[in-house]
Amino acid sequence: MDERRDPLPAAPADPAPPAARRRVAVVFGGRSTEHAVSCVSAGSVLAALDRDAWDVVPVGITPEGRWVLVADEPEKLAIRGGALPGVEESGTGVVLAGDPTRRGLVVQEPGRVPAPLAEVDVVFPVLHGPYGEDGTLQGLLELAGVPYVGSGVLASAASMDKGAMKALLRDAGLPVGPYVVLTPRAWDRDAEACLARVRGELALPVFVKPCRGGSSLGIVKVTDWDDLPAAVATARSHDPRVIVEQGIAGREVECGVLDAPGGERPRASALAEVRVTGDHAFYDFTAKYLDGSAECDVPADLPGEVADRVRDLAVTAFEAMGCEGLARVDFFVLDDGGVLVNEVNTMPGFTPTSMFPRMWAASGVDYPELVGLLLEDALRRGTGLR
């Protein structure tokens, strides 16, 4: 007799091994005057990282330029009671080996042979200003063969220098406001001629800025030509290369840009408008980070056609500068609906109040997802000529 039996149940499959966590070094602090802002940004990034997916190595750079291992304690990198955080010398010293066959951090301790710490899969350089956002660190990471979040050497350097940035944007046909660059050589040769050029080419008010600065540090609004020399001296205390920009009567609007894979057009975020209240003459460091006197509308209340033009110009500026990964593009929207590009920031602030993450949150991309997207983009892009 043909005996039929139910088939035996399949043996349970071996559980899949957990995916190996990739290692990300979050590098922050640095030698620029934006050291504290970088620390606050890094604290937010560290808090948002998915620890099931990432093995995190926080690396701080002291104001003197020493690289040290920092405790993975994001809460210690917040602004508390107006006190700004910073990277202290007390950590174990490390260096990034400029050797693509090693791709790792090396521990340096006095009197001991340097020892490898760990291979790094990707770096998130949460650095603002010179010696971090300006192509210098990006060059080191290229030499080391370690992928990193954000733009490469040229785009980082050109976007950091407001004079070079505006020249490239203007050459690409993008609308920018009038400006004059005062180089160190020209200033040392004939400061009076430099001042005369500014007075001859621009009209009051003007904004005097360090060419390679950020977070509104070292910026002076000048409404009387007699105050111009002191304003230039203030800017030069941050950077010997100075830019003087024509004051623009318009609304300050910002747009975030994220790169897209496979040559697709980058994505533009919802827009933000910044309005300064109180006694501030402009959107300065205190208004940005300390006293809460800046009001921000996200999304910005703009006519649809104006908002579309701003987003289109943001992507065009991103591509004209050769940016990668991310950028925040700042604009002036004039009363007649005209739009001027003001700045391109290749590593915008990542603090809890920063516009870049807020604009993407309003676009449906929350902070942890944003951080993850940027890291995946960096790994996909890799290093080398591209």
Automatic annotation (TrEMBL):
Name of the molecule in the record: D-alanine--D-alanine ligase
Family: Belongs to the D-alanine--D-alanine ligase family.
Xref: HAMAP family: Dala_Dala_lig
Sequence ranges assigned to domain ATP-grasp in this UniProt record: 166-376
Swiss-Prot/TrEMBL catalytic activity: 2 D-alanine + ATP = D-alanyl-D-alanine + ADP + phosphate + H(+)
Positions bound to Mg(2+) 1: 330, 343
Organism of this sequence: Vallicoccus soli
Pfam families: Dala_Dala_lig_C, Dala_Dala_lig_N
Pathway noted in the entry: Cell wall biogenesis; peptidoglycan biosynthesis
Top-level division of the source organism's lineage: Bacteria
Binding site residues for ATP: 162, 207-209, 215-216, 245-252, 342-343
Annotated residues for binding of Mg(2+) 2: 343, 345
Gene name linked to the record: ddl
Active-site residues, as the UniProt record annotates them: 34, 215, 354
